[in-house]
Amino acid sequence: MKGMGNMGGMMKQMQKMQKKMMQAQDELHEMTFEASAGGGMVTVTANGKKEITDVQIKEEVVDPDDIDMLQDLILAATNDVIKQIEDKTNDTMGQFTKGLNMPGMF
């Protein structure tokens, strides 16, 4: 059965690729991402798991009469940091799915 040896080699390749994918994902999860809004008035930090780990707000942006602006800055910085994580994840993990038609994989 000649075809069976080829199947075994393909399985080894798949296992190797899976191990590399898991390693890449672990590395992504350990990364730190940061985004700011309002010229650095609000800075949001997150890890590669999309968990917000820190929010810094400069004192001068805290205006009780303009809470809406502060909320907008926080939203902008948070959305930016999440987009950075998604872009990096797609770039990193996309190398494993190039040429494969696997919708919704990541």
UniProtKB/TrEMBL annotation:
- GO MF annotation list: DNA binding
Region of interest (Disordered), residue spans: 1-25
Highest taxon of the source? Bacteria
Q: Can you tell me which family this protein belongs to?
A: Belongs to the YbaB/EbfC family.
Q: What does this protein do?
A: Binds to DNA and alters its conformation. May be involved in regulation of gene expression, nucleoid organization and DNA protection.
Family matches, as PANTHER family = NUCLEOID-ASSOCIATED PROTEIN YBAB
Protein name in the entry:
Nucleoid-associated protein K3T81_16085
